[in-house]
Specification:
With 186 residues, this protein is mostly helical. It has helices at residues 5-12, 16-35, 41-59, 70-90, 106-130, 134-145, 149-156, 160-180.
Amino acid sequence: MHPDQKYIRYLQEHHSGGIDEIYRLYAGKVKKMILANSGSEEEAADIFQDTLVDIYKLSLDKDFVLTCSFEAFLIIICKRKWLSHLKTTYKKKVTNLTDHIYTFGENEASIAEEYALKIEKENTICALLEKLGDKCKEIIKACLQDKNQEKIAAKLGLSYAYLRKRKSLCMAELAKMVREHHLFKK
């Protein structure tokens, strides 16, 4: 476990002083990176906040242990989010998004990149789920929240057999969308 695990605990415990420390230490670095690459202060704040939320969600996995510096982890996730934002929203050219302004060990960067990719993939799957029809979204989300499919079927006003069939079709459609997405192609 890395000594910076304390920052993860601050997020998990909603420790206001600790979260203030994260902002004090790292928000300026993210802001500088985004401003240097066609971004605004508001976009930098949004990317920083979204990244902290993603790290918090990732940390809820009981197996999650930070094995690199929090700074490397945070900056790389912010960088990936910003690149994705530029690519999808503005189609702007990135001018100065370099890693050399940050001092990470090669191993730290590699570990942080793995976590960043995991977060990006999870967010992509959530976005693809939102592209499904309303009934498919409702079924999949209900099944993710509760494992008792008989209870879900009753709640949605469906027969158990129909729920299972429909869930299977919806999951197949989602899986197809995931396989076709560039992040998941090998």
